[in-house]
């Protein structure tokens, strides 16, 4: 049974899902050295923001197939190191969107009305109404940096509160921003005009220290900054200095350069600053959402299925995956089949996406075909993450072509593998209730669902040949489950595809090719 390590607090709903397919160990608060010592036993690791998954931990995770981040940001995972080792990294892109957006909105209002400090003063027994005179957000400019999922929800609520919305996001169109009631502006203008600046961007080399002494100097002296995105996007000492010197009005921070926050001058800035311990996603609802979302993906990967929100599989988003999932299985089966027919070392794989598969969204099918092709060589070590890298390292040239006009089936996939032993091709489609069918082998039309053990022959279409092959297989106690012949012309060349109940015993292939009329025979295990 597979083993999953949960190294941060995760809602029980997630643990229950994982327990259906694996032994689950919950061990929170591990030191890096302790994690390194035990990670080698586990097939999957599930984390929140508390665990930093370094290259060292990934190297020690010799069995790891998947790292699941129950949340959005994966900046606490060395994703390139995981990708190099073929480890899938998944997150929950939407599970905590509302929670994080509502936390940012709560910060805006709390900061404006000094709620945390006013509350503390009443609890101390005071009744001070002068110190805590606040400001209204109505008709104030809110500058949203990052108009993605969280930024967009903040925008819609802030709009309802009567705020004027400015947004900066280089990857969002003006039309999309306008739909959300935001005026898309450049960053300098946003800094100059905003009364509130809220950050909803990932931490990347471009966004690190985006708020620094220079950018703080551009802001209004009353501007308030909210960071519920990531620590490190703000230079904390420059921010503390700007608040102390009255260069800006205040800040509300949920995330910090180093967490938990240690000694910091931010703690001593009074009512102009609010600090929360990375609570953006800490609602009951969000924790259930992210735990279920990520646990389901870990379960799927353990069961050999693709994950819907893998961050290191290019082009595979949840909606695309939903559509492509059955075709990914088709691509993988065909890749595995053509690799075995080609035998030897494959040098070129041509992937032809036909009919409705000839869209740009179909890129993951090429990866799935490569995964199938490399399965014989790498077994479980090849997956959707590393298939392209492994193919490249083996010098396999991949040619991708598209033919939207092909109309034999709604969508079909044609693979051709050329290697040291020659060229073979297979075509397949999904028929009926999305059942995989082989529709062509080496240019000969057939229509068979693939089975675990198969035998293919290339032979002369002539009387008696099927009977001879049947008797030969019978003499070796091989039971035929189904058989079909594909030919282009009567008494020309033909292909026979047989499904057999057991693997073909050693030595029998040579006997088959000795049958008069049979030129070649191939056995495959799918
Ligand atoms: N405090 C907390 O507990 C939580 C924090 N987060 C943080 O919030 C961030 C945003 O989350 P989502 O909205 O779900 O992500 P998202 O991916 O939907 O949106 C991020 C947006 O930032 C934009 N962006 C990227 N680089 C940018 C740049 N240099 N300048 C301006 N915009 C840029 C992208 O175009 C995108 O629209 C996450 O990266 C995560 O770090 C998320 C959830 C909870
Ligand atoms: O796990 C958490 O509570 C933090 C959530 C977070 O920061 C994220 O989802 O990016």
From TrEMBL:
Residues 454-526 form the ACT domain. One of its GO terms (molecular function) is NAD binding. Belongs to the D-isomer specific 2-hydroxyacid dehydrogenase family. It catalyses: (R)-2-hydroxyglutarate + NAD(+) = 2-oxoglutarate + NADH + H(+); (2R)-3-phosphoglycerate + NAD(+) = 3-phosphooxypyruvate + NADH + H(+). The lineage of its organism: Bacteria, Bacillati, Cyanobacteriota, Cyanophyceae, Nostocales. It comes from Nostoc azollae (strain 0708). Pfam families: 2-Hacid_dh, 2-Hacid_dh_C, ACT, PGDH_inter. PANTHER family: D-ISOMER SPECIFIC 2-HYDROXYACID DEHYDROGENASE FAMILY PROTEIN (AFU_ORTHOLOGUE AFUA_6G10090). Its EC number is 1.1.1.95. Catalyzes the reversible oxidation of 3-phospho-D-glycerate to 3-phosphonooxypyruvate, the first step of the phosphorylated L-serine biosynthesis pathway. Also catalyzes the reversible oxidation of 2-hydroxyglutarate to 2-oxoglutarate. This is D-3-phosphoglycerate dehydrogenase.
